[in-house]
Design a protein that fits this description.
CATH topology: Aminopeptidase
Strand order of the largest sheet: 1-2-3-4-5-6-8-7
Number of domains: 1
Shape: globular
Largest sheet: 8 strands, mixed
Order of helices and strands: HHEEHHHEEEHEHEEH
Structural class: alpha+beta
Radius of gyration: 18 Å
Helix content: 25-40%
Distance between the termini: 30 Å
Number of helices: 8
Number of strands: 8
Bound molecules: coenzyme A
């Protein structure tokens, strides 16, 4: 490649983060047919409260239902602190049709030496079973593998929460087995199902 072309390409790529940490610091906006997935803003607090105060949404996740809008504001502040510190974090899923934040998706952990991240998500109950989580996860996996160049993406879900497993299966993730009493959640030891997808499997899937 000529020096000029290399320079033009570097200039064109100027806006794209180059390191995993840059993606944590400046999560890119992801667009899907029905969603815009973007960093959380304080003005989203009311929307977040609407779904995150629902005990059914919080039932199998590690956070407790938000009791007041102040809990949602403090959740958004903690996400923003994570962006500033380049730490794994979540973004909000905004429904294009209404402009409301109706869920979240993001990294629950990241191990740099093995380029492995864990993903988690939740959506407002009135919107369940319309394929929104599947749509969000597909876009998120594209970010993980195509842009961030991760090697492995993992997810776990409570064995009593099979809907989450359906989402992971739809996106090509592979079940690896049950990890017994891996989580202490809401006063109980819980078994979780572990899922993963490797970069080579993602590439094969894309070529199909
Ligand atoms: C899990 C969750 C994110 C799924 O979101 P969603 O937008 O409804 O997901 P999708 O519509 O893309 O897919 C849901 C799938 O689960 C299936 N499903 C729903 N309830 C189910 C149940 N009780 N048992 C088995 N499958 C179920 C649906 O039929 C669908 O599968 P299908 O497309 O093969 O029919 C949503 O239920 C949620 O936010 N739950 C609370 C938070 C949570 O548990 N997050 C996951 C933590 S690991």
């Amino acid at each position: 490649m000529s020096e000029m072309r290399r320079l033009l390409r570097a200039l064109a790529e100027g806006d794209e983060p180059s390191e995993v940490w840059d993606y944590f610091a400046r999560p890119p906006v992801l667009e899907t047919p029905r969603l815009i997935i973007r960093p959380a803003k304080m003005r989203d607090a009311e929307d977040v409260f609407r779904y995150a105060s629902d005990p059914e949404v919080a039932r199998y996740v590690l956070w407790t239902p938000h009791r007041t809008p102040a809990d949602s504001r403090s959740f958004i502040r903690s996400l923003q602190r994570q962006y500033r510190a380049s730490q794994p974090s979540s973004c909000l899923c905004v429904l294009r049709e209404t402009g409301a934040a109706v869920g979240s998706i993001g990294f629950t952990s990241y191990q740099h030496d093995i380029l492995t991240a864990e993903v988690g998500y939740s959506f407002a109950r009135p919107l369940w079973n319309r394929g929104l989580a599947t749509e969000a996860l597909a876009a998120f996996l594209e970010l993980c593998f195509d842009r961030m160049r991760l090697h492995r993406v993992e997810a776990v879900h409570d064995t009593d929460n099979p809907a989450s497993g359906r989402v992971l299966a739809h996106c090509g993730m592979k079940p690896e087995g049950v990890i017994r009493q891996r989580v202490f959640n809401k006063g109980q030891w819980r078994d979780v199902q572990l899922w993963s997808l490797l970069s080579e499997e993602y590439e094969t899937m894309r070529r199909r």
